[in-house]
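Subject: Sanity check before I submit

Could someone independently write out the structure tokens for this chain? I want to compare against mine line by line before I put it in a report. The sequence has 143 residues.
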Amino acid sequence: MAVIRVNSNDVKILARLIRAEAEGEGQLGMLMVGNVGVNRIRANCLDFKGIRTMKQMVYQSPGGFEAVQKSYFYQRARSKEIRLARKNINGEKFHPASRALWFFEPGGSCPRTWFNQPNAGRYKSHCFYAPTYQNCPSVYRVY
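---
Independent answer below. Compare away.
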């Protein structure tokens, strides 16, 4: 059961995003990027107040994703990434991105905080950052 409202185009947008942002990280890395996207739609806190749709989340400016500025983001969604995107939309979560709202690829080790939020962990080259319960209780809701 979907934890956010989407249509087939939204699924394809998320599929393109997770491929563009994390194809080199494998399926688990792409699923973690998808977690961040779904979390941003559900969060309604911090930098993501009022972000309620897939398009708002992906194209948010400032605060959106670097990949939308690259041509490879605009390639057709593939069935593999569509399946992964559906897992995210259906609420599957993958640590350390389970509650993360941010991720990035540093040149070295992960900073302890990002946007004043603590590091939740690293997967391959990406560091993930989750808000505290006090700053964003909605990402801690169970669905």
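---
OP: Matches mine. For the report I'm noting this point. The radius of gyration is 14 Å.
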